[in-house]
C-alpha cells in the first residue's frame, strides 16, 4: 500500500450541472445529489482511494487531499431569479425604459443598454448567499465546505475585442497567418471588430461564439484566396452585420474600376533582365 501526500489545485467546471433540482421544480435528482455526496469526503481533507491507471486498474492508491485546494465554477443559469425573489431587486432598476424610449433609441444606446443590463445582473449575483445556492439545488453539506464565493462579471464588448486580437493564440492572428500562406493579407476594420463582438455577445455563450462568427465571415474569403490574384481582404461592418461580400484588393498591372466586390490595385511588375544568348564559336 502506498500513501501519496499531494499538494495542488483541482478545478472542477460546470458544477451547477450536478444540482439536485432541475428546472426549478422541487423534484429530487438522485444522480446530481449523489455526485455531490461523493465529493464531500475529498473536499474536507481525507485519504481517498484512487484507481491505479498505470496497471490493470484493479489496484488502488491512497491519496491524501488535505493539502489540495478545490475550486468549483459554473454558470448557474437561473440563480439571479432566486436572488431577486429573496431580495426583491428589480432586474433593471432605475434604468428601465418605456416603450416610447425604446422606439427612439439608436444603435449606440442599444449597445450601452446591453452593457448596463449585464452590469445589473452582476450586481444581483454579488448578493448571493448560501440559501440561494441551496434553493438552486446544491446540498447544504456541499456548500458548507466552500468557504469563499466569487462572482465573475459578464464580458463586455471591449473584452471580447481584446480576446480577438491580443492573446498569443488569438483568433484574428490565426486567420491572418492562414491567409498569408495563400498570399493574401487580412484586414478587419475597427467597426467590424465591434460588430463581431456584439454578435458574439448576443449569443450568450461568451467568447466561445467568436470562432463561429469568424468562421461564417471568412468562409468565402478562405475559398477565394487560394490560387488567385487577391492581395488584400478587407472585412467591413456591412460584411459582419448584413453579410455583404468583403472588399477584395487584387493584383493587376492596369488600374480597373470594378462595380462588383473586387477592387483592382495597380502594381508595377518587377523589371526583367534579358540575357543575350551565348554566341556560337566558329
From TrEMBL:
Q: Which superkingdom heads the taxonomic lineage of this protein's source? A: Eukaryota
Mind telling me which Pfam families this protein's record contains? AAA_2, ClpB_D2-small
Q: Does the record bear ATP-binding in its keywords?
A: yes
Give coiled-coil spans as residue ranges: none
Keywords attached to this Swiss-Prot or TrEMBL record, sorted alphabetically, are:
ATP-binding, Hydrolase, Nucleotide-binding, Protease
What InterPro entries does the record point to? ATP-dep_Clp_protease_ClpX, ATPase_AAA_core, Clp_ATPase_C, P-loop_NTPase
- The UniProt annotation puts the region (Disordered) at 94-118
Q: What is this protein called?
A: ATP-dependent Clp protease ATP-binding subunit clpX-like, mitochondrial
Q: What species is given as this protein's source?
A: Magallana gigas (Pacific oyster)
Amino acid at each position: 500500500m502506498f500513501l501519496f501526500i499531494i499538494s495542488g489545485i483541482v478545478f472542477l467546471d460546470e458544477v451547477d450541472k450536478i444540482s439536485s433540482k432541475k428546472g426549478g421544480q422541487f423534484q429530487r435528482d438522485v444522480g446530481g445529489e449523489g455526485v455531490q455526496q461523493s465529493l464531500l469526503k475529498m473536499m474536507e481533507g481525507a485519504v481517498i482511494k484512487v484507481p491505479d491507471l498505470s496497471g490493470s486498474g484493479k489496484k488502488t492508491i491512497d491519496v491524501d487531499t488535505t493539502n489540495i485546494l478545490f475550486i468549483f465554477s459554473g454558470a448557474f443559469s437561473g440563480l439571479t431569479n432566486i436572488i431577486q425573489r429573496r431580495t426583491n431587486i428589480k432586474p433593471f432598476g432605475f434604468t428601465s425604459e418605456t416603450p416610447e424610449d425604446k422606439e427612439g433609441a439608436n444603435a449606440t444606446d442599444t449597445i450601452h443598454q446591453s452593457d448596463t443590463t449585464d452590469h445589473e445582473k452582476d450586481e444581483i449575483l454579488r448578493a448571493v448567499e448560501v440559501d440561494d445556492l441551496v434553493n438552486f439545488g446544491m446540498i447544504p453539506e456541499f456548500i458548507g465546505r466552500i468557504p469563499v464565493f466569487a462572482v465573475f462579471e459578464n464580458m463586455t464588448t471591449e473584452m471580447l475585442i481584446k480576446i480577438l486580437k491580443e492573446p498569443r493564440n488569438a483568433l484574428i492572428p490565426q486567420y491572418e497567418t492562414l491567409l498569408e500562406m495563400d498570399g493574401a493579407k487580412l484586414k478587419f476594420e475597427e467597426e467590424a471588430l465591434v460588430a463581431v463582438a456584439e454578435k458574439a455577445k448576443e449569443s450568450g455563450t461568451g467568447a466561445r461564439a467568436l470562432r463561429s462568427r469568424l468562421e461564417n465571415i471568412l468562409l468565402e474569403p478562405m475559398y477565394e484566396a487560394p490560387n488567385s490574384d487577391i492581395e488584400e481582404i478587407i472585412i467591413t461592418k456591412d460584411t459582419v452585420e448584413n453579410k455583404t461580400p468583403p472588399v477584395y484588393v487584387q493584383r493587376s498591372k492596369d488600374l480597373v474600376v470594378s462595380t462588383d466586390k473586387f477592387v483592382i490595385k495597380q502594381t508595377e511588375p518587377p523589371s526583367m533582365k534579358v540575357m543575350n544568348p551565348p554566341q556560337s564559336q566558329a
